[in-house]
Write a structure and sequence with these properties.
Length: about 210
């Protein structure tokens, strides 16, 4: 039995039916690209039916924001066609594989103006439902530095060590001040006692 026919018959056993709910498009919704580099925007669809090149249809469109008009730059209708637009020129190429349900494309020499929203539309009759994937591409002038947990631990340990030293220093200073204060009190007490002793001696001599 033909695997495609077998797959179709198995799909027809679903409660809601294959044609109404089988189309699914998988994309990475948010992507970052460095200005001047090359990036591949992946779009893979899942369908209950084998692709029939004579019926299959696909469009890639671009829009700067969700409020802007979509501009089509790639389409498939019996054959893949990359539309040469003023925006992309010849920087866009198809890099997917239709036999593997992959309709991805690649942008070379990424520009800051490529920042925006990319829509992947797929229709694979007899699926009646059109699939759609949305990718938000952010073009950066420089990539953010990687987060290193080791550095975070070292910094945290250093800060903790500094705080410990500060606390220890404060305790030492406080102890030294308290000791000096006690020494001053002891000296004052000694002077006071010596004064009393001398006073007592003078009184005794006067009595004699």
């Amino acid at each position: 039995m033909d695997p495609a026919l077998n797959l179709t018959s198995s799909c027809s056993t679903f409660e809601q039916g294959c044609p109404a709910s089988s189309m699914d498009v998988v994309v990475t919704h948010k992507m970052n690209a460095l200005n001047g580099t090359t990036i591949r925007l992946s779009c893979i669809f899942n369908s209950c039916y084998k692709v029939d090149n004579s019926k299959f249809a696909m469009n890639w469109t671009y829009q700067e924001t969700f409020n802007d008009t979509e501009e089509m730059f790639m389409t498939y209708k019996q054959r893949m066609t990359v539309l040469r637009t003023e925006k992309f020129g010849d920087r866009v190429v198809f890099s997917g594989n239709l036999e593997k349900n992959d309709v991805s494309f690649t942008i070379s020499d990424v520009q800051l103006t490529d920042d925006g929203i990319y829509n992947c539309y797929v229709r694979n009759p007899p699926d009646r439902q059109q699939g759609k994937g949305i990718i938000k591409l952010n073009v950066l002038t420089e990539l953010p530095p990687p987060r290193d947990s080791t550095i975070a631990v070292v910094v945290g340990a250093s800060v903790g060590g500094i705080l410990a030293l500060l606390i220890l220093s404060m305790v030492v200073v406080k102890c030294v001040r308290r000791r000096r204060k006690q020494e001053l009190i002891s000296d004052e007490q000694k002077i006071e006692e010596e004064g009393k002793t001398e006073g007592d001696g003078g009184t005794e001599e006067g009595t004699k």
